[in-house]
Amino acid sequence: xxxxxxxxxxxxxxxxxxxxxxxxxxxxxxxxxxxxxxxxxxxxxxxxxxxxxxxxxxxxxxxxxxxxxxxxxxxxxxxxxxxxxxxxxxxx
Length: 92
Known about the structure:
- The chain is mostly helical.
- It contains four helices and no strands.
- About 18% of the residues have low confidence.
């Protein structure tokens, strides 16, 4: 996904040689890329309530210690609930 965005930025920059409108569009695309895709790579999973997406959120870095603790406590709660509801499916 990032490769396509960078390629689109380059194409807009080349097209913008004669037209400043394309430069503005390329600048807007750079802003959106940096704001939402590059910096906030794990931001899409930050509001999840747990479940299947909690495994993928463990690879992202938390912004501070409190966010880390909230995520870790939520994951522990889900694991305890899973063990309680499915005792036959837990490895010992």
